[in-house]
Design a protein that fits this description.
By secondary structure, the protein is α/β, with parallel strands linked by helices. It folds into three domains: 98 residues, MurE/MurF, N-terminal domain (Udp-n-acetylmuramoylalanyl-d-glutamate--2,6- Diaminopimelate Ligase, Chain: A, domain 1), CATH 3.40.1390; 213 residues, UDP-N-acetylmuramoyl-L-alanine:D-glutamate ligase (3-Layer(aba) Sandwich), CATH 3.40.1190; 144 residues, Mur ligase, C-terminal domain (Protein-Tyrosine Phosphatase, Chain A, Alpha-Beta Complex), CATH 3.90.190. The chain is 34% helix and 19% strand. A hairpin with a 6-residue loop joins strand 15 and strand 16. Helix 13 packs parallel to helix 14.
């Protein structure tokens, strides 16, 4: 964040200073809502959460060096005090879920106003370029790839993880300083108007729309409504901006008339009418893709991705488009993409144990599209290892609405398509029961367990014994492949961690 006095912060946020606050005291560090992460010169946001209230940790933050706190009440320490914001009727945001009196909304609104002021100043006076990324699946992976490309051209802010909502978005903006050249902002939505709001906080110069799937369809009602929400990103672009659209997705390609910005397209299917497209796609033994990248004006470049899954080709092309449109040459883009690795935890995080077992940890989130991509990666990786077992440890996909049961059952068809041998379904819901039932009908060795501990035990027991008929199993270099995936609430990454614990990796 740029240096700022408490008086100016109060003016920007519409707050007032507590009696203990020095108006001339300057915030010179970062804004944090975790008192354990606050450093000297920082501003602590007293965020009331589901389990703890940040107002109770103001003293701890002050002891760690915080100049002041952003609060909704007197706390006996230097503070910028903002008004509470009562929840809006029908608000289905993450913020509203645990905010009965509007305290959380108040401090987040204050943080958002502060972030918007910082973004305007850095963009107008210091040349900051803001890139927005949205889509039903692949946002975080693409954000990481864009950051890898743009880091070759200047200082880039794109924190690991999915800081993509009304809380994480302004937090990300406030990581920028006068030295930041590029901000890559991931933008999510649970309703129409959410992305438009995020774009007012950090107005993007470039907007990337990856796809329109069925994530959050329970809230939106239809893919068409999801497209309306995702398209708010390109509507926010200025006339001298660039919209980067997926030519392989009709609903995304159809967003072109909604923006005044110049439109460029990308295609992972080899569509030569797209501005950026891939040919000669190959996958290695752990489903890392290599391909020839074609751009509007440069020579074709070979890209060898270090991230996992065939779906990463499209994400890489989107990142390439951003880089080239911002002046990074094609060869540098190809090198950046080829050397990029996952920096966001539990996102296609692939490790191979010394005993040859490969664990694909993609447990941060899940929707039908990302599930299909992950199952494909599992199937492909196992297919290159004759005789091994492919094990899908799957938990529930959230927010799918009335089609949830059928959407889960359909995953069993994907498992059969990619010849996955074993399913461990985690959870006792009707959706997981439907998945289990159809998996059995498809000839898959399926079991259902109640929790992550039981899942780890079941998979561990399976991996401990060789498949029937496999001689010299323990001498093999490559053995079973395990995918762990579910929506975030299922916490299935615990299973992946248990499978890797105590093992050396290669």
């Amino acid at each position: 964040m740029i240096y700022m006095t408490l008086a100016r912060i109060a003016e920007i946020t519409g707050g007032r200073l507590s009696p203990e606050a020095d108006p001339d005291a300057r915030v010179t560090g970062f804004v944090e809502f975790d008192s354990r992460k606050i450093g000297p010169g920082g501003l602590f946001v007293a965020f009331p959460g589901a389990r703890v209230d940040g107002h109770d940790y103001v003293d701890k933050a002050a002891q760690a060096g915080a100049v002041a706190a952003l609060t909704t009440k007197e706390v006996g320490s230097p503070a910028v005090i903002v008004e509470k914001l009562p929840p809006r009727e029908g608000d289905n945001s993450d913020l509203a879920a645990n905010d009965p009196d509007g305290s959380a909304a108040g401090v987040v609104d204050g943080m958002s106003k502060l972030a918007a002021a910082v973004a305007r100043e850095l963009s107008g006076e210091h040349g900051l370029t803001i890139v927005g990324v949205t889509g039903s699946a692949g946002k975080t992976s693409t954000k990481d790839l864009i950051a890898a490309v743009l880091s070759r051209a200047g200082e880039t802010v794109a924190p690991p993880g999915s800081f993509n909502n009304e809380i994480g978005h302004p937090y990300t903006v406030l990581r920028c300083t006068e030295d930041t050249d590029f901000l890559v902002a991931e933008m999510s939505a649970r309703g129409i108007g959410h992305i438009a709001h995020l774009a007012t906080i950090a107005p993007p110069k470039i907007g990337v729309v990856l796809n329109v799937g069925s994530a959050h369809i329970g809230e939106f009602g239809s893919r068409e409504n999801i497209a309306i929400a995702k398209g708010e990103l390109v509507e926010a672009l200025p006339a001298d901006g660039v919209a980067v659209l997926n030519a392989d997705d009709d609903l995304v390609a159809g967003m072109a008339p909604r923006t005044a910005a110049r439109v460029v397209t990308f295609s992972e299917t080899g569509n030569t009418k797209a501005d950026y497209y891939a040919t000669d796609i190959e996958l290695d033994a752990v489903a890392r893709a290599s391909f020839t990248m074609h751009t509007p004006n440069g020579s074709p470049q070979r890209v060898e991705l270090g991230v996992f899954g065939a779906h990463q080709v499209g994400n890489a092309l989107a990142a390439a488009a951003v880089g080239v449109e911002l002046g990074v040459d094609e060869a540098t883009v190809a090198k950046a993409l080829s050397s990029a690795h996952s920096v966001s935890v539990n996102r296609m995080d692939v490790h191979t144990r010394a005993d040859g077992v490969t664990v694909i940890n993609d447990a941060y989130n899940a929707n039908p599209e990302s599930m299909r991509a992950a199952i494909a990666a599992l199937g492909y990786t196992a297919a290159a290892r004759p005789g091994v077992r492919s094990v899908a440890v799957l938990g529930e996909m959230g927010e799918l609405g009335p089609d949830a049961v059928e959407q889960h059952a359909m995953l069993a068809d994907e498992l059969a398509r990619y010849r996955v041998t074993h399913l461990v379904a985690v959870g006792d819901s009707a959706s997981m029961a439907a998945l289990h039932e159809r998996a059995v009908a498809n000839g898959i060795n399926a079991t259902t367990v109640s929790d992550t501990e039981a899942a780890a035990q079941a998979v561990g027991a399976l991996l401990a014994s060789p498949p029937a008929g496999e001689d010299n199993w323990h001498e093999r270099a490559d053995r079973d492949v395990v995918l762990v995936k579910a929506s975030n609430a299922a916490r299935l990454w615990v299973v992946a961690e248990a499978l890797l614990q105590g093992h050396t990796l290669r």
